[in-house]
Amino acid sequence: MSVLVYTENWGGKFKKLSFELVSYANEIAKMYGTNLVTISIGNVSNEELTTLGNYGASKIYSITDAKFNNLSSQAYTKAISQVAKKESANLIIFANTYTTRAVAPRVSIRMEAGLVPGCIALPKQTEPLIITKKAYSGKSFADVEVKTPVKIITLNQNSFKLIEAKTTVSIEVFNPEVSDKDFIAKSIELQKASDKLDVTDAEILVSGGRGLKSADKIGIIDEMAKAIGANCTTACTKPVSDLDWRPHFEHVGQTGKVVAPNLYFALGISGAIQHLAGINSSKFIVAVNTDKDAPIFEAADYGIVGDVFEVIPKLIEAIKELK
Ligand SMILES: Cc1cc2nc3c(=O)[nH]c(=O)nc-3n(C[C@H](O)[C@H](O)[C@H](O)COP(=O)(O)OP(=O)(O)OC[C@H]3O[C@@H](n4cnc5c(N)ncnc54)[C@H](O)[C@@H]3O)c2cc1C
């Protein structure tokens, strides 16, 4: 028996999300009283793999064959399932990302495993497994019981803290049995719509809504993001991107991108349920709105009732002073 965790990489590097995931998997392995086994697919250096050992990953299978450098859901599914069988994994854990949404359900079919996507906490109990996930676009929670011998869960970003657990790492290069047919559908090249940091990668988001009034005036969110600096980028609501005030790749929400930054500034945003569905995994939400009854204040950790064109310049000034 073991707990297997798949750690995704981005250009050969892990993100905070990967370390959260390993911390989470390590705690679950302890609950089961079993070993934690990690799998990495793609061109990740041994030095980078070793960083996972800071959070409890002791045994790492590394698939470095160049064929696997770009996502092929069929080949990744076979590779992960083969390691899961080799290690008799009873639980397989993924982060809830776009990549794993293409892979985890396929692994679930192959392993005849019950799948719970979007988990937000450690299991309430292990036998049978009962675990809490978000439901209805994050508007409610569901406790799900999984009865299959092998189980799969995916963890939402920012749902679990980092827990340092320094471990000696052993890395084994693994060559899965795959054929050319498994690479029939693969992503050949990733083209970025912009060189800007993606909204899903940023730790801080400065997001503008219709309260910013116009395409010209909304540029103030760029100024604020620039003042904050690294790991910060801009985002917006759907109407703002529909009006072409901001590019579509900044649109967050139910029909846009789902984000989970550490800090989300909601500036001139009413807080419609479709917008909140994309931001409610943010660690802290700061809202600025002239309407004290705007629904965004119910979701916000900190709120300022005021005009964005008065408040944002003061925030920029304060950020610069702080720096
Ligand atoms: C099927 C469906 C899917 C949708 N998907 C999405 C989605 O993915 N993402 C999304 O964002 N929306 C989505 N929407 C739209 C959503 O319902 C809201 O209409 C939208 O989020 C509102 O955007 P907003 O907050 O920018 O604008 P508004 O609702 O118009 O809010 C503007 C806010 O700015 C405040 N304001 C005005 N002037 C100022 C000022 N000077 N200073 C400070 N505050 C000010 C106002 O008080 C108001 O609260 C969807 C809708 C549907 C029906």
Question: Secondary-structure blueprint of this entry?
Answer:
Layout: E1 2-7, H1 16-32, E2 35-41, H2 46-50, E3 59-63, H3 73-86, E4 89-95, H4 98-111, E5 114-119, E6 129-135, E7 140-146, E8 151-155, E9 170-173, E10 204-208, H5 220-228, E11 232-236, H6 238-242, E12 263-267, H7 273-279, E13 284-289, H8 296-299, E14 302-305, H9 308-322
Parallel strand pairs: 1-2, 1-4, 2-3, 3-9, 4-8, 5-8, 10-11, 10-12, 12-13, 13-14
Antiparallel strand pairs: 6-7
Can you characterise this structure?
The protein has 9 helices and 14 strands. It has 323 residues and is an alpha/beta fold. The chain has 2 domains: 2-183, Rossmann fold (3-Layer(aba) Sandwich); 204-322, TPP-binding domain (Rossmann fold), CATH 3.40.50. The protein has a 7-stranded parallel beta sheet with strand order 5-8-4-1-2-3-9, with helices on both faces. The chain has a 5-stranded parallel beta sheet with strand order 11-10-12-13-14. Strand 6 and strand 7 form a beta hairpin. The radius of gyration is 21 Å and the shape is globular. Flavin-adenine dinucleotide binds at residues 209-211, 237-240, 253-256, 268-270, 272, 274-275, 278, 288-291, 294, 307-309.
